[in-house]
Amino acid sequence: MQTTIHSLKKGEKAIIKDFDIDAVPLKLLEMGCLPGNQVELLQIAPFGDPLYLNVNGSHVAIRIETARQIEVEKIKR
Amino acid sequence: MSLKNINVALIGNPNVGKTSVFNQLTGLNQQVGNYPGITVEKKIGFCKLPTNIKANILDLPGTYSLNASSIDESVVIELLLNKKDRLYPDVALVVTDVENLKRNLLLFTQIKDLEIPTILVINMADRMKHKGISLDIPYLEEHLKTKIALISSRKGYGIEELKKLIVTYKSISSEPCLNASSIDPEYFDGLRATFPNQLLYKLWLVITQDVNFLNLERKEIKNSYTKSHSDLKRLQQKETIKRYQFINDVLKQGLQVDASIAKDFRSVLDRILTHKIWGYVIFFVILFGIFQSIFVWSKVPMDFIDTTFASLSSLASQKLPAGVLTNLIAQGIIPGIGGILIFIPQIAFLFLFISILEESGYMSRVVFLMDKIMRKFGLSGKSVVPLISGTACAIPAIMATRNIENWKERLITILVTPFTTCSARLPVYAIIIALVIPDERLFGIINMQGLTLMLLYLLGFGMAIFSAYILNKILEIKGKTYFIVEMPNYKLPLFKNVAINVIEKTKAFIFGAGKIILAISIVLWFLASYGPGKQFKNAETIIIEKTKSNPLSKTALDNAIASQKLENSYIGIMGKAIEPAISPLGYDWKIGIAIISSFAAREVFVGTLATIYSVGDSDNENTIKNKMQAEINPETGAKIFNFASGISLLLFYAFAMQCASTLAITKKETNTWKWPLGQLIFMSGLAYLVALIAYQLLK
């Protein structure tokens, strides 16, 4: 199974690898969600959705259905 | 000497303190209006710069980039693409937040591509030390080809330097800072060759956006340079990457962050405010506190306004020469104006709380907290903002739905928002609660009247959520569901921003609603002071004749004549005509008149009753509340405003769609009459039914 933002645990950091461009809104790209940038899962909302991220310095919340589309590689500590 | 004012446009991402910069530059010297044909707020202010130059400062809606995804954002592009626009900027100020410089610069590089002289305003500079940030200004100015103003709109420093910089606008570079067309040279070279006189980036914006471009037909460009939606988006992604590469390279040298210094309140506050239990508890405590204080704190100023106008009214009828004009002033105009002004305390408090919630950054946390729950009802977490700001007024609330990405979620939010208790219902609630709910404390602390008000707000929210649930089941609309919400840094709300916001909003409400209320009260006074037929004309002789066998005292006789007149006046006849339809709800014909006249705007209800009870009343000293309290059903001798009819009225006003402006805005935002008509029929039908059931059970 590929690793996506959805599979991160709270506090984990990862590098964005790739995503289906049609499934991710342009606005998110503009916020810095681009291949090669770092993403950190900061908070998970009660009931598990949405996810609160730090993407390349931008603090944004997205829903799981979008998070699932974004493939990442975890940063090992 | 009449030099033309220079035009300065303020552009920036949301949450960078753009409005504070605007307020700092212009003070209270602002005009708020709408762009023609659309309901996007247009804010222009005036500023006197050094060396006697005057500037029009235009505060454009916040946008993350020039790729518009809402009507508010397209306003920005349309202005910047149209050199002939009266407000086309001589200089653009791109406002950024020093903590989010990387992302904020994306928009900056796009503006630079439009070849407008651009100043980079780096705001919140007071936080740099705290966050361990240092900037190499000369380096940044050189590579971004701009002038930089390092300011703090919060602490108020750097503003004078910024003004001096604006004056030099003619010498500020309008050169792009990177070459974005290198992402697909072949395509852009072709485009450049075909339209040699046009700015390349403008062409690209026209191709990718739904904006109109003056000299060129959209189709003309489109046909020769069409690409599939996917290809265009791929290209936009490449463009975004390209811009970020440039920004990263510049910032590597120009911006240093010492992470060891940075203190993070954000994560601590986030952990508490979005906690799975405490998050909700805090949210509800805040809401509860707001509604309690609105009722409790506004009581004194409201009573003051009420009694002041009652005594003004009696003063007018004593001091002015007796006649029709005096009657109009004392019984029509003064109570009418009083009926408007009495809303000010509550409305101001409401706007105050809402603007504090938004300014502090807390609202985004509520969106985050509520999204999953709201989705169960076909709404979005972002629907919380319209539902809460709907407590002030449904019109801006419906406009605030524009950032909901999914159409179905947005439509449902628009349709159910009018159920939330708007400030126009407040005066109706306030007076009826004061009449039928005792002013006592439950368990010694909770004010019963405040509690009733809170319950009415909850009822409004509850009905909104319930209708959303039903609509979600019956509406079949498919669409992509996106949801992105920025979580801004927590900020202590700035007094100046909050104050200006409260003043502007309250003013707009008072003047907007005030005109209607005043006009209606004057019309009402005429309709109540004149009537057709003998029953009205000979009221005096009829009453004297009737009471011949049992003569009344002077005052009782006057009152009997006055009510005979009112009953047979034009308005009395209208009220009597609808009485059969509303008497099962517990209302008499006077309330019927108030319901008719408040059909276009709820707040007219109280003003109407004020006018009706003042007409022919020799004793103007009495407040409206006391007059309503004294109303008695002539047949049964029971009070008109009793517990059952009071509750029935409260429920009627909780649900009925009595606001022409809301219907108009729903039409505008949904582009069809289908939805506003649906709102009208469903909501008013429901109101009638619920009020009927309540009265029949309680009486």
UniProtKB/TrEMBL annotation, chain A:
SUPFAM superfamilies named in the record: C-terminal domain of transcriptional repressors
Gene Ontology MF annotations: transition metal ion binding
Domain of life: Bacteria
Keywords associated with the record: Iron
Cited InterPro entries: Fe-transptr_FeoA-like, FeoA, FeoA_core_dom, Transcriptional_repressor_C
Span of domain Ferrous iron transporter FeoA-like: 3-74
Name of the featured protein: Ferrous iron transport protein A
Upper taxonomic lineage: Bacteria, Pseudomonadati, Bacteroidota, Flavobacteriia, Flavobacteriales
Automatic annotation (TrEMBL), chain B:
InterPro entries registered for this protein in UniProt: Fe2_transport_prot-B (IPR003373), Fe2_transport_prot_B_C (IPR011640), FeoB_GTPase (IPR050860), G_FEOB_dom (IPR030389), Gate_dom (IPR011642), GTP-bd (IPR006073), P-loop_NTPase (IPR027417)
Cross-referenced PROSITE patterns: G_FEOB (PS51711)
Subcellular location(s) per record: Cell inner membrane; Cell membrane
Membrane topology classification: Multi-pass membrane protein
Amino-acid positions noted as binding GTP in the UniProt annotation, renumbered to this chain: 12-19, 37-41, 59-62, 123-126
Coarse class of the protein's main subcellular location: membrane
SUPFAM superfamilies: P-loop containing nucleoside triphosphate hydrolases
Keyword Transmembrane helix: yes
GO cellular component, one term: plasma membrane
Regions that span the bilayer: 277-297, 333-357, 377-399, 411-438, 450-471, 508-528, 640-665, 677-698
Domain FeoB-type G: 5-172
One of the record's GO molecular function terms: metal ion binding
Binding positions (Mg(2+)): N23, T26, G27
Lineage top rank: taxon: Bacteria
Keyword annotations of the record: Cell membrane, GTP-binding, Ion transport, Iron, Iron transport, Magnesium, Membrane, Metal-binding, Nucleotide-binding, Transmembrane, Transmembrane helix, Transport
Keyword Transport: yes
Similarity-based family: Belongs to the TRAFAC class TrmE-Era-EngA-EngB-Septin-like GTPase superfamily. FeoB GTPase (TC 9.A.8) family.
NCBIfam families: feoB
Function: Probable transporter of a GTP-driven Fe(2+) uptake system.
Official protein name in the record: Ferrous iron transport protein B
Natural source organism: Flavobacterium restrictum
Biological classification of the source: Bacteria, Pseudomonadati, Bacteroidota, Flavobacteriia, Flavobacteriales
